[in-house]
Amino acid sequence: MRIGMVAQSMSRANGGVSEAMHRFCEAIADRGEGHALHIFAAEDAYSREDSRRFDGLATVHLAKAYGVRRFPVAPRLAGLMEAADLDVLHVHGIWAAHGWSALRWHRRTGKPVVIAPHGMVEPWILKRSPRLKHWVSRLFQDDLFRRAATVHVLTDNEGRDVRALYPQARLDEVPNLVPPAPPHDGQHPGWWADSHAGRKIFLFFGRIHRKKGVEELVQAWRRLAAARSGWRDEALLVFCGWVDDFPEFEALVAEAQSETGSVLYAGPQYGADKWRSFAAADYMLLPSKSEGLPLAILESWSGGVPTIMTQECNLPLGFSTGAAICCDVSPDGIASALAQAADEGPERHAERAAASRRLIAGTYSSERVGRTLLAMYEGTL
To answer: Could you give the C-alpha distances from 194 to 145, 234, 306, in angstroms and in order?
Structure first.
């Protein structure tokens, strides 16, 4: 097959969506069946550099974008997709102008479209920028969903959210995937200091945005520091990631560090530093208010790092297998989960770490995801 994948951005600017798209390409390529993969996206500040990640996996096609920063339009995308003579087009993410390009391509060619919302139909997301979403829906998105051969959902919960908006939609469930974590090279991440030795490391990894529960997490940490003597020496909260539409974040961290002596912002971590950060952590944190299927959680489990997360992360297997501790989105709920993790002994932590690795190997493997993706595409032809 000639398979196209289109997103508003294929670079780091698109966070977990672009990472998931890259992983899907790897899973298809790993099958060794000779499928031709094409990636389409609007240009952004990182796209030329990040397109190199697809070398040997897919041909990347970039189109110049015009318009406002929050809604760039790349008029040439539809033509690039048409010239690639695709058999099927996989649309990653919604509420953006690449959906209009996908609809134009479908109208011209009559070939099937698969839509992957990537968590963007969750109620929390729908409440944000409702006027923009109303007009995007009316102008092209509702028509695109009506014409879609299938909607690719990551979880059962996402399927229910899609059906609430588009009751007649056909659904195919294919999860994100995570390859096994690379062997630890024995080195500390760049943010490590000797004073961190012996402390429990709680790691927040990924896009730093208000919807991720960051403010509530910092509040919870400050409450624990005030309530538990020795918390400064017992634990460390490390934020690794890029700040998205949250200009107050670094001041928030600085104030918490001044008060507790146990909060650090390490900035984005890529490549080896990403896996060194996971290896240094005892627990990964994601007290999020809205997610699709968070790759940061899956990557932490791949590295044997248990998690503290909300039900909104859409990974209930983490709770049932013991790979995760559940919290709600309130500061008190997060503080309670942090205290539970801090008080668990090494044997219980080792059990959680082993459960994390088993979960990735059994459910989110490249072989399983690649096979299911290709069956989904074939079912649209």
So the answer is: 53, 14, 23
Residue 263's DSSP bridge partners are: 237
The CA distance from 80 to 149, in Å, is 21
Backbone angles phi, psi at 379, to 5 degrees: -70, -10
Element (H, E) at 36: strand 36-42
CA gap 227, 40 in Å, rounded: 52
Secondary structure class of 73 (helix, strand, coil): strand
Look at residue 70 and tell me whether its pLDDT is greater than 90. no
Tokens of 309: 């997360």
- pLDDT (0 to 100) of residue 36: 98
CA distance 74 to 64: 6
For residue 201, the model assigns a pLDDT of 98
The two tokens of residue 180 are 């096994």
Q: Classify 125 as helix, strand or coil.
A: helix
pTM: 0.81
DSSP letter at 137 equals I
Closest by CA to 285, choosing from 261, 313, 317, is 313
CA distance from start to end of the chain:
10
For residue 118, give the DSSP letter. T
What one-letter code names the amino acid at 276? R
Token pair 């529960």: residue: 213
